[in-house]
Amino acid sequence: MTQIGIMIEGSRGLNWPRWKRILQTVEDCGFQSLFRSDHFTNPAGGDQDSLELWISLAYAASHSQSMELGSLVAPVTFRHPSMQARYAAAIDDLSGGRLVLGMGAGWQAREHQRFGLPFYKTATRYQMLEEALRVTRLLLRSDMPFNFQGAHYQLEDAILLPRPARAGGPPILIGGNGPRRTLPLVAKYADEWNADALDLAAYRERRAILRNYLSAEGRATDDIKYSLMTRVIYRQTQAQLDALLHESGISGADPREGRMIVGTASQVVDQISERAEAGVDRLMLRWLEQDDMVNLERLARDVLPQF
């Protein structure tokens, strides 16, 4: 059965009052998980409040009981992988084994420039990501000290102590749709693949490509979890929905060519069901209205019981 979670954008006004309210609402409503992006600024400007990823997840770990928590995703350019692995293992322990460590290459040049973080060429960032994935897996899974000599990271007699309470530490998620760079890394290193806002045809196409990469790595198709992040726009009535779409500049006939879930309860249920039939194990509904907990509660009440 497809799991249904919520995804929040960390740079679109997220502050402590909002994060606390979102956290409580998402868990009380029975969503399976709560993920958030790792960004400091918005790519087009108009910066808003933002919370640092790992501090907010540490708070969430100790102020929630049952839902999974995760990064979607943490750019390798922000933090040294050995430090990030320590944060992730500690938060996973604090939460009782509920963290998912989402990792990616990073893409937003503006936030790097703003805060003095080097923003490398795409090929370099993916080299860094692969090394970071190797370092992270070793730190989480090796009970003995190890050395690592890469082009970007070097470790000597490294061991993560205390050892993660969960065997192997938190699962590693890799997010992205790229068939040439991202999907080979998913096949080699990931426990979960997260596709970003793909329509069903594109999702099926990427999944077939990933299946071939998994086979080449000697892994079965069901060795990993398949998740999809997509924006949801929901209202109880068609009139309310039409008004919201008009305000947002989104045509009711154009829900971004199937890359979003848009509708009233029955329409949302149908669209989620289509993705479940396509093999999506976990659906992360991107909820942009951080002050609108009323409609998020209504979405949970009207949709979740169907799944």
Please tell me about this protein's structure.
With 307 residues, this protein is of the alpha/beta class. It has helices at 16-29, 53-62, 81-95, 109-114, 122-141, 182-189, 200-216, 238-248, 265-277, 293-303, and strands at residues 3-8, 33-36, 68-71, 74-75, 99-104, 146-149, 154-158, 172-175, 192-196, 225-234, 261-263, 282-286. The strands form two sheets. An eight-stranded parallel barrel has the order 1-2-3-5-8-9-10-12, surrounded by seven helices. α6 links the parallel β8 (172-175) and β9.
Ends: how far apart?
7 Å
Got a strand count?
12
Mean pLDDT: 95
Q: List low-pLDDT spans.
A: none
Largest sheet: 8 strands, parallel, barrel
Shape: globular
- The portion of residues assigned to helices is 40-55%
Could you spell the SSE succession in H and E letters? Answer: EHEHEEHEHHEEEHEHEHEHEH
Strands of the largest sheet, in order across it?
1-2-3-5-8-9-10-12
Oligomeric assembly:
single chain
> Which class do the helix and strand fractions yield?
alpha/beta
What percent of residues are in strands?
Answer: 15-25%
**Rg result:** 19 Å
- The number of distinct helices, counting runs of at least 4 residues, comes to 10
